[in-house]
Amino acid sequence: MSDDIKHEWPLFEVFVRAKRGLNHVHVGSLRAADHEMALHHARDLYTRRNEGVSIWVVRSDDVVSSGPDDKDAFFAPSGDKVYRHPTYYSIPDSVPHI
Amino acid sequence: MSFDDAYEALTDHDDDTRWAYGTGFSDPLAGVPTAVPDGVDPADLVAYCLMLGDDALVMSHRLQQWVTRAPELEDEMALANIGLDLLGQARLLLTRAGEVEGTGRDEDALAYLREPAAFRHVRLAERLDDDFAHLIARLLVFSTWRLALLDRLTTSRDPILAAIGAKGVKEATYHREYAAGWVVRLGDGTDVSHTRMRAAVDGVEPLAGELFEPHQVELRLAAAGVGVDPATLRTEYDDVLAEVHRVATLPPPPPLQEGTGGRDGVHGPELVEILTEMQELARANPGGVW
Amino acid sequence: MDGAQVFEETIAKDQRVEPRDWMPEGYRKTMIRQIAQHAHSEIIGMQPEGAWITRAPSLRRKAILLAKVQDEAGHGLYLYSAAETLGADRGDLTRRLIEGRQKYSSIFNYPTLTFADVGVIGWLVDGAAICNQVPLCRSSYGPYARAMIRICKEESFHQRQGYELLATMMRGTAAQREMVQDATNRWWWPSLMMFGPPDKDSPNSAQSMAWKIKRHSNDDLRQRFVDMSVPQAEALGVTLPDPALRWNAERDHYDFGEIDWDEFKRVIAGSGPMNAERLAHRRRADEDGAWVREAAAAHAAKRAGAPA
């Protein structure tokens, strides 16, 4: 009976680099028995329209993530470091290409 | 909301690179010269394109029959991909056959209006799969052989065949990898899967010998630097199969048995069943346009 | 701020809720149910068209149809993966589907009798699906919204290939034109039912609108679809099977006839022409594949050095 039907392949997260010069971006997840199969499936599922020059797959349970509750501790400290943002610096309009 | 732009609501999501979303498709035969190479009988070239084209067309049909029946949704995607790749190869090869023949038959006339005896594929392509293990066993034999063949075709003196080979090598590499991966998983997996995988290998192996028996057309075109003598593919094939079987904990592949017929149009009742399904609708509507 | 406040504020600001955020149990359940039903619809929806791949009357149509049905498997996977971010398990969702405990779109319980049905499914069924789905790209749940964007982009080819097939057939033989008209007659009303019951009878709509899971009412989307479809039918040269269909200048919309909601309820309840067969087919594929999935898991466990 259906209780015997097993879906015990683990979940993998998939990241695709759309073209050279861009970061890998997370595009979704899939199930596979092992990493090799996950790469194959990722190619079929997430790059069948020529998307991407490179794929990463990572076991979902290997991903360590900050929780929403940690948000302030992780991200607030940089909120005041406006000097990291290019718009902090006023450049006269007459200066080109910067 | 207009028919041309059903997606105007997506205006804040128009940055495609964010989605790793693809573009840039190309015609593999764009700009490739189409003249028949010197010293080649056009009839031989037509027959050869039909052989390789029918292999792909009939194998693709069997893969299409797996749609909605695959063991997992991810494999649904993979099998459809392989079926699409082979269908694409078949279309290029049948189109080439029709053009060289010069009597106005296009890919559809060749696919839909030929009788079983005019099909030139190896019989391995038409075999019905008893289960997923049989499909995988057949796919490993077929794609290992075809990859070796397409790889040699990339240096063909016929620029069209060379271009088809170059395109097909990438595809068949993936097909072989997919099949080999599953032979290993099933062979090494559970007792049940090991037994089924062995039965599948036993069922498919008798059809493998035919793949390496050269037909006169193949020999003449190989001598002219246009086609491939399939006997030259044996070493590569044997090495790959032996290695896959070893990793899969399966007994070594049995010696190949002699077999011929498919290349001369000798087929079993399975082809009649395939063609009935494939051709019925097209033939029932003479003058129809799709 | 506690989780509930953050959630309320996220919704109010029209921002996305992400997997690890706090969310009301009702929101999570509604989201899982909706995404799962959507995923099931994609997977069951492969069957009516998939049945024509091997019989497609030209190699070009065969390739298009195979790619389309493959897309549907892909869309199902994107959606199951979105549901899994909420803690659902694909195997469990599949069990619920094949045991009839979760629904899928009732449109797929109608049979595909001729090849023109392939075209009409693309034109009307995918057209209706697009009307339903484009607003979902702004759904408040992030992974669902992102899956929908990808799906909508890919669906654009689905509707176009269907309409193009019909337009081609209308230029063909008289028998082909009849096939197109006949398929249009059979699929028009079921397509209108795809938008769900009238707003006054739609029990879950109000909460879904408040949570911004849904963006437009069933009746609004249905009207939009009718307004889109009428000129398309005219361009095609087919008649939509509704004598009450006419332009209403006052409303600036097309008026249309009464939908047979009894039929809708019958099909939802499982008495449509193909309900039993669709589920049996999906169940068979899942059961036939069980030994394959187990083998792959066993092999992976051996490789990892763990006991099989």
TrEMBL record, chain A:
Pfam families linked to this entry: PaaB
Reading the lineage from the top rank, the first entry is Bacteria
Gene3D superfamilies referenced in this protein's UniProt entry, alphabetically: Phenylacetic acid degradation B (3.10.20.520)
The cross-references to NCBIfam families, in alphabetical order and at most eight, read: PA_CoA_Oxy2
Q: Report the protein name in the record.
A: Phenylacetate-CoA oxygenase subunit PaaB
Q: Which organism is it from?
A: Paractinoplanes ferrugineus
From TrEMBL, chain B:
Which Pfam families did the record assign? Answer: PaaA_PaaC
Which named protein is this? Answer: Phenylacetate-CoA oxygenase subunit PaaI
Q: Which GO terms describe its biological process?
A: phenylacetate catabolic process
* GO annotations of cellular component type: cytosol
Species of provenance: Paractinoplanes ferrugineus
TrEMBL record, chain C:
Mention one GO molecular function: phenylacetyl-CoA 1,2-epoxidase activity
Tell me the organism.
Paractinoplanes ferrugineus
**Where do transmembrane segments lie in this chain?**
none
Q: Which Pfam families match?
A: PaaA_PaaC
Q: Name one GO cellular component term.
A: cytosol
- Domain of life of the source: Bacteria
SUPFAM superfamilies from the UniProt entry? Ferritin-like
* Coiled-coil segments on the chain, per record: none
Instruction: Tell me a GO biological process for this protein.
Output: phenylacetate catabolic process
The gene from which this protein is expressed is: paaA
Q: What is this protein called?
A: Phenylacetate-CoA oxygenase subunit PaaA
